[in-house]
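Q: I have 121 residues here and want to know how they pack in 3D. Can you give me a structure?
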Amino acid sequence: MAVVTIQIQNDIMIVNVVGRLSFDEITDTIKHRYDMVTCHVLWDFSRGNVGDITTEQFKQILALAKEYRPFCEGAKTAYVSTIDSNFGMTRMFSTMAEIAGLPYPYKAFRSFDEAVDWLRE
């Protein structure tokens, strides 16, 4: 079980994750917190990880994100992961989002500052 907190910094909604995040926790965050999104989303897994999310669950997460995220021209989603296995999972998720044709680019980073810089480009 993870602890998920939300922080708004200008036009970026930061989802801070501490601990192992389950599929249900991800979907709950999207369903009940994505109404707070003003433009960009940054999932910060610096102190957490995505657990054992399957490819099929990633597809379900993408569908939910597309349904619940408000539209914002030029919006992006970034993932920050310092653990190799977690970084690989978030890169895979970013690729799946692109293949699925989601309207926003997704990208994985190892550094919080790099992610914020990319979101503000």
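Q: Anything worth noting?
A: The chain has a mean pLDDT of 94. The longest strand covers residues 40-49.
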